[in-house]
């Protein structure tokens, strides 16, 4: 049954400031595969991952490359603390799975052609809309060389939050990695139906692509962009809802179902 038709509601998440201190963003490149097999292949691992300490939410974005048809996916996670985010990133390097009768490291799965991941401190995060309305995301990541960027981001966040609210978005995270001198901006967009089916979904994705997010960052930060992707949402894993007795998984795409866990996955 698709999660959008789940008898369990989403509990424990509501609009307002998010009490999160750390984040992880991940990019994976996957060979061309239909969405239901992808859902089947990652379901059990995502379920296990969503139970790691301190996780607040996991977004699984996806987009098929118009160039070669490969699936551009990954994850955007927030945690209650930076330490839990960093520990999660370390844990994924040691997490083992079964594949073709062998035990291998998670990132060595044949499903993944490549992966990259980044750990962040959350400067500020806010939800403007209910979870059920969220359908696509845009993640932008920059590098910088200047000093004093961290304090400037703290000063920027209240202004950025109010400005971005006027774009009628659902969620914003402003992220900083001082060790690697990186800034991240993760924005979740919505539509009226809360699904990624049909014309409204495409309109939401087009709005994400053309949203003037880069103009929100002051020029004196001298940021150099190295990642910018707008994607549909395949799944949203919701540990807080699970703990409250609600659904642990929301699937905006109605044509994709929670898999039969007796299947042998990719």
Q: Which terms would index this structure?
A:
266 residues; alpha+beta; two-stranded antiparallel sheet; disordered N terminus; globular; 12 strands
Describe the structure.
- The chain has helices spanning 35-49, 82-94, 149-165, 198-210, 239-243, and strands at 16-17, 22-30, 55-64, 71-79, 96-99, 102-105, 114-127, 134-143, 171-177, 182-190, 224-237, 249-250.
- It has 266 residues and is an alpha+beta fold.
- It has an 8-stranded antiparallel barrel, surrounded by 4 helices. It has a two-stranded antiparallel ribbon with strand order 5-6.
- A hairpin with a 2-residue loop joins β5 (96-99) and β6.
- The chain is globular, with a radius of gyration of 18 Å.
- The chain starts with 15 loop residues before the first strand and ends in a 16-residue tail after the last strand.
- Mean pLDDT is 90; it is low at 1-5 and 261-266.
